Amino acid sequence: MSSQEILIFTTLADRDLAEEYIAEMLQNGIIISGTIFPEVALLYQWEGKLTIDSENKILLKAKAEQYPAIEEYIMKKHPYLAPEIIRLEASFGSDKFKSFIQQKIAKGG
């Protein structure tokens, strides 16, 4: 049986844009919360060359049934050609935190 909760990782180079995306997804009710980690270095191969950039890692918490809406949002709005979207099944740990999350969902955020 899969979990009802998921974690989604994505990235954006622009922190202001990351905050805007999280705020819109919260207002649309498709995520429970979002965390922006401090800017990190990213190394990758692009067109045969080693590239070093920086970007913000974003962690979204959501109910599993919201995943299609979250993916659609990211794919439509993201400036990258192939944005990172990593979905992880999760169980939101402690009973106290799980209760808090359930209350937030019941109240619509």
From TrEMBL:
* Domain of life of the native organism: Bacteria
Identify the InterPro entries for this entry.
Ion_tolerance_CutA, N-reg_PII-like_a/b, N-reg_PII/ATP_PRibTrfase_C
Entry GO MF terms: copper ion binding
An example Pfam family from this entry, by short name, is CutA1
Signal peptide segment: none
Q: Where does the sequence pass through the membrane?
A: none
User: Which biological process terms from the Gene Ontology are attached to this UniProt entry?
Assistant: response to metal ion
Q: Which SUPFAM superfamilies match?
A: GlnB-like
Regarding protein family, the annotation reads: Belongs to the CutA family.
The name this protein goes by in its record: Divalent-cation tolerance protein CutA
- Organism source for this protein? Leptospira fluminis
- Identify the taxonomic lineage of the organism of origin: Bacteria, Pseudomonadati, Spirochaetota, Spirochaetia, Leptospirales
